[in-house]
Model the fold of this input.
Amino acid sequence: MYQKIAVPVDLAHVDRLPRALQTAADLSRHYDAPVTFVSVTAETPTSVAHSPGEFEAKLAAFAQEQSQKHAISADARSYTSTDPAIDTDRILRRAIDELGADLVVMASHIPGVADYLWAGHGATVAAHSTASVFLVR
Amino acid sequence: MSTSDEPETEDLPAPEGASDVIETDYEIGQDNITPRIGPLGLDIHNPVFAISAGVVILFVAVILLFLDSVGGALGDLRVFLTSTFDWVFLTAGNIFVLVCLGILISPLGKVRIGGAEATPDFSYAGWLAMLFAAGMGIGLMFFGVLEPAYYFATPWGDTPLGRDIGIVDGELMDPATVEAARRTAMAGTIYHWGLHPWAIYAIVALSLALFAYNKGLPLTVRSMFYPIFGERIWGWPGHVIDILAVFATLFGLATSLGFGAEQAAAGIAFVFELDGIEDSTNFAVVLIAIITCFALISVLRGLEGGVKRLSELNMILAGLLLGFVLLAGPTIALLSQFIGNFGAYASEILALSNPVGREDDGYRQGWTAFYWAWWISWSPFVGMFIARVSRGRTVREFITCVLIVPTLVSVLWMTAFGGNAINQLIDTVADAQVFEFVIADYVPELSLFAMLSELPFAAITSVVAIVLVIVFFVTSSDSGSLVIDTITAGGKINAPVSQRVFWVIFEGVVAAVLLIGGGLAALQAAAISTGLPFAIILLVACYALIRGLMSEPR
Done:
């Protein structure tokens, strides 16, 4: 039913991802759909990487490791932004279109009062993407 | 971070091309805390955020409570610093220019910001627009007419180099004196808006960009001193530098926002002939609120959709106004003056930048040292912002576009606005509007409108000028808040959006409170006073910058 699964991840918060990663892996095996891990990084050095290039390498390594751990086909796609705090939602939507993903699996927090002011990335992607979106809480 | 499955930082890949990454045990965000205030989660540097915000609130409270004593003392401090240490400011300015030019022509110019294969994020047009809007857009609007006209005919004896003035007691001098006074006025003005201020920005911006994009250190002011302090920079020496930078940026922005709102109010009253609102604090506070709202919308749209769009709008409006002023004035004369003014600047720059043995105290201390302190106190803000948008440029390209191109534009701008104003003074002397608002009555905020009022379509151009002033303020408020947010988040540019919203609003509130309670001048004096320690710090930074560049692959 699904051909390609996009899984947006934040490498600075890998500890919050396991449920989403497991969900994505299960769906990937069930539908025999490859997974692409997508991430947006800052142009400036971050806690994850000194440069966008290093970040790309780390994301690729992460995808490789997930692929082996869950026995799925996985690759990675990283995007850079001069202002990730604002641009991430827009870039994720663009990435989903570019990859031709028809299913998005991503971790999201349980909405609170603050979500009336600023919705989480997951909520925003779900609201605007043409793909099916599975938010894992 | 639980990334034990990932390679640690020993063997760093360098996929952006070769660069000399500094190995440090510091991890970006390691000192950050993530408290929750109500429903909002934060990600802030401990203790820089808390101390910065606390110091600002404390300072504003002290000034409001003890305005008479503290306000006067801060004003005196500013005058004391710029008149006693004028030679420090002038010498430092000269060193910054020489360092920039030296790097420009040396092989160090081949280093690329962000690694040998990094590519720029912004087009030339968008990049230059942002450099200008952040660097001096608002100043050009305010001083473009004021400064040349003032030097041409000042009765207060503070002409550049103590030369003769063109109008004495309302009478025009002989043609030779007038022409000499015109050249001196233009050279003295361009000196303040040319190579020297941009060299200050270039040093800070280049250092920050180098240590962040090439060396992998966090994008915050302390990083540029890593070669001097080493690992200690992550402790208190670095905290102090960052807090000082936030202090200078926030107070610089808040005071210019406060003064700017007053000026815009006066301009609106003048243009629309509204009596009674020119001195209205309420009207100025409303303007601050409007500017803050627009800045808020802009920060929420991000760098690309906010600041960059606004800067481009600024450039289009400023370009139209500049083109109009050139065409509506004596076009041929102004264009030939452009070359002449450039020559005047080139021939006088050595005399003007000489730090010792001069007689023109009023100009050198009251104007030049004041400007240098002002540019230096703004340099953490402008430098951080320029650094953030300059990844992918080579150092040579960077210095050309941050030093040479803006200087040329400043010469053109001053020629058009100042040249027109001086021509009006020469033509109608004491009957000129410019004479009335600059020399007879010193009302600096109306000088631009006075010049425009004697050109055709004054009603339209004055409105464009007011819009431009307001949009420049929105841009400053917006980019300044992004910078403060980054510094107080320990160099993270992806901190929660609520933080940048906090800084935009905080800055507007500080400006409004000071406007109502008084004390804008005192706070501005405090901000400018940070110029002296920063001047010393920046001289040290020049050394760190050159060392940092030399270790980069070229």
About this structure: The first helix of chain B runs from residue 48 to 65.
